[in-house]
Write a structure and sequence with these properties.
Radius of gyration: 29 Å
Strand order of the largest sheet: 24-25-26-27-31
Low-confidence stretches: 1-7, 469-475, 523-529, 695-709
Largest sheet: 5 strands, antiparallel
Mean pLDDT: 78
Number of helices: 15
Structural class: alpha+beta
């Protein structure tokens, strides 16, 4: 684990590591706390197989012991402690994988499993249950294929009296008190009283794969997970079991995440651990303080975890077990809250950005924590956990963006770069330094140049930009930086559709480049033919539309690069939208980035002129106009002779190999939108008249890090 950032050292609570499990649990395992304080870990999944194995955790010794296995291997089942001390297990998946309907009970004293009656109608996924005061346990599930739900109860011998109802979405939570049962499926709160089934309100989000926790007072707490569109959400809410009690909105988490594990403490506070944004898996922990009604940062776990399980061990203790990452699947951790609030509460994203902008030191701490979280996630995802812990720091570096010192095990990052650049660009620098660490830590190569053969081969194999060394501005004297800024402004003017303005700006920029030729040659040294590099263009967007997609295709086709829409992250490595990434030879990246900037500005100005002339500003008209202009412009470029930027087959193969190594799992997406035929016709005409201003050839932009915030 990376050494803690300053804010991490003040975080609440601490973690301890008991002995590892005998059987790894990658997910789908259930935890049940017995009356004597021990915890039963039931079933689950590992290496693609469902498990029969059962382990018993003794918190006083911090050790696990194997007990009698179940009759059926199952995962994602419901398990509950009955009043007589037995553990009832219902539902789940078998190895086939089909849904498992046969219930079982475990006798702790006899260390034996017994069938709990015939197969039950409850076989949906997920299945949830809770025991009530009289020993009766209620279970509910929803078959999402048939949109049908089932509610049953266990009378001590068998599950009886199934009740069916129309439903969508899985069952998230269920509670029972004498006389009635209440549960949440999808976002609907349903209630069973006596022999009547009624609806009793709505939740704000289903929080699928999020935290649904039963509170000591009888209510429930929900946070994180996925919303109705399947998007990770930071939202939180609480609901009470009484009649007419609606769900109440709570302050959101500081970042969206899904597949978290959570448990409640005795005072009603809730510990939410790990999770993922579908790109990174986090070791970070957030604690909801029920008394102050605020989120606090708790100390991070030793490994990132998602699809883990959690259970309350005592008044202020929580046990977290397993997770999909191999290092997590074999281990468990115990969290104990110490009530420390010196680090202050965690703020929602909007408030956090506002405070960070006003407090540069706070922003730097947030970036350092983001680097540490990203290091842990990348070590697992790209380097299989083989890198040893490092110390990180932000420093006022003058001639570089980052450095790796194997003797001191120290990674240093430029404070200026990390607090002003887009996060994907900062993360690329981090990957570059981690490749240096891999060469020294794992390969043991110490007698080569810094960017020698071992380093280049590591970057090529993992899809890391070997040229990710920083921006030229950081390596220049003040007068040289002034020249560079002036050339960049002239290059921007050279993209203007106004021919006179473009030609004048281009001529002035050419004059400066020739006058300071040595400067620009030093900033952009010739790259080897086999080099494949990375460039991010545009800005991060929460949602991209058909115009963004069309623009990206034009850049890929006529810029000689491959394109990937990759998730953009904020300063702490949490999702903040998506950004276009270009992959290809460095010379092609320069042209493609210039083409992207030219087209983004040109079609924006053409649309504004058309809107003023013809009126109307609907989204459909805008999209139709811009897409048609881009397509017509692309047809013009296609008629030109083959340019030097076109990729020869050998180079194309290297780029594709680099892309596959960088992104082993890619999927193709499409954007569709309604069409305004009149706006599209005007856009096509504008696209035919648009002239591409090549701009300054050889005035290199940043070697890695293009757009700024």
């Amino acid at each position: 684990m990376v050494e803690a950032a300053p804010s991490e050292t003040q975080a609440r609570g601490h973690w301890s590591a008991p002995a590892p499990l005998a059987v790894p649990r990658s997910g789908g395992h259930a935890l049940v706390r017995l009356r004597d304080g021990r915890v039963l870990c039931i079933g689950g999944v590992h290496a693609g197989s469902c498990l029969r194995d059962i382990e018993l955790f003794d918190p006083s010794r911090g050790s696990w012991s194997r007990v009698a296995p179940m009759a059926h291997a199952r995962a994602f089942c419901a398990a509950v402690l009955l009043d007589d001390g037995r553990v009832l297990v219902v539902g789940g998946f078998r190895p086939d994988p089909t849904r498992l309907a046969a219930p079982e009970t475990y006798d702790v004293r006899a260390d034996a499993w017994r069938p709990a009656g015939p197969a039950t109608a409850v076989g949906g996924f997920p299945v949830h249950g809770v025991a009530v005061e009289d020993g009766t346990a209620y279970f509910a599930s929803v078959d999402q294929r048939l949109h049908r739900g089932t509610l049953e109860h266990f009378n001590g011998e068998r599950l009886v009296e199934p009740v069916t109802f129309e439903a969508t979405g899985g069952v998230q939570w269920i509670a029972a008190v004498p006389g009635w049962v209440r549960w949440v499926h999808g976002v609907t709160v349903a209630q069973w009283r006596g022999s009547q089934l009624t609806e009793a309100g709505l939740a704000r989000h289903p929080h699928t794969y999020g935290a649904w926790v039963r509170l000591p007072g009888g209510g429930c707490f929900a946070a994180a997970g996925e919303d109705l569109q399947g998007t990770p959400t930071p939202s939180a809410e609480t609901g009470l079991p009484g009649d007419g009690q609606a769900f109440q909105r709570l302050p959101p988490l500081d970042a969206p995440r899904t597949h978290v594990a959570a448990a409640a403490l005795a005072d009603g506070s809730v510990v939410v651990t790990g999770g993922t944004d579908r790109r990174l898996v986090y070791p970070t922990v957030r604690l909801w303080d029920a008394g102050l009604r605020q989120w606090y940062a708790a100390r991070s776990m030793t490994v990132p975890r998602h699809e883990a399980s959690a259970v309350t061990l005592g008044p202020q203790r929580v046990l977290v077990v397993g997770g999909r990452i191999e290092a997590a699947a074999r281990t468990a951790e115990v969290f104990e809250d110490d009530g420390n609030r010196s680090a202050g509460p965690c703020l929602p994203p909007a408030q956090k950005r506002k405070r960070a902008a006003a407090q540069p030191d706070a922003r730097a701490r947030a970036v350092l924590l983001g680097l540490q979280n990203a290091w842990a996630a990348l070590n697992t995802r790209m380097f299989q956990g083989r890198l040893r812990p490092v110390t990180m720091e932000l420093a006022d570096l003058e001639r570089t963006v980052a450095s790796w010192n194997p003797a001191d095990r120290l990674m240093r990052f430029s404070r200026q770069a990390c607090t002003t650049l887009l996060w994907p660009q900062v993360e690329e620098v981090l990957k570059h330094e981690m490749a240096h660490q891999f060469v020294s830590d794992v390969l043991g190569v110490t007698d080569e140049a810094s960017h020698g053969r071992a380093f280049r081969e590591t970057c090529a194999r993992l899809g890391i930009d070997a040229r990710a060394t920083g921006t030229p501005e950081l390596n220049l004297a003040p007068e040289e930086q002034a020249v560079l800024r002036k050339v960049e402004k002239l290059r921007a003017l050279a993209t203007s559709p106004n021919a006179h303005e473009s030609a004048t700006a281009q001529a002035l920029a050419d004059r400066l480049v020739n006058e300071f030729k040595e400067l620009f040659d030093a900033m952009s040294p010739p790259a080897a033919d086999e080099t494949v590099s990375v460039r991010h263009v545009g800005v991060m967007k929460l949602r991209r539309d058909a115009v963004d997609t069309e623009l990206a295709h034009v850049v890929a086709e006529h810029g000689g690069v491959r394109i990937i829409w990759t998730n953009g992250l904020d300063d702490e490595g949490h999702p903040a939208g998506s950004i276009l990434e270009l992959l290809g030879p460095p010379s092609n990246l320069e042209r493609a980035a210039y083409l992207h900037d030219f087209l983004a500005r040109a079609i924006g100005e053409l649309w504004e002129a058309d809107r003023r002339r013809h009126g109307g500003a609907s989204r459909t008209a805008r999209t139709s106009f811009m897409v048609a202009a881009l397509r017509e412009f692309a047809r013009k470029l296609a008629k030109e002779p083959v340019h030097a930027h076109a990729l020869i087959p050998a180079t194309l193969a290297r780029v594709d190999q680099f892309t596959r190594a960088r992104y082993p799992r890619l999927r193709t997406t499409y954007s569709r939108s309604s069409v305004d035929p009149h706006a599209a016709a005007r856009g096509a005409s504008a696209g035919r008249d648009l002239e591409f201003r090549q701009g300054v050839d050889g005035a290199a932009g940043p070697r890695l890090l293009g757009p700024r915030k």
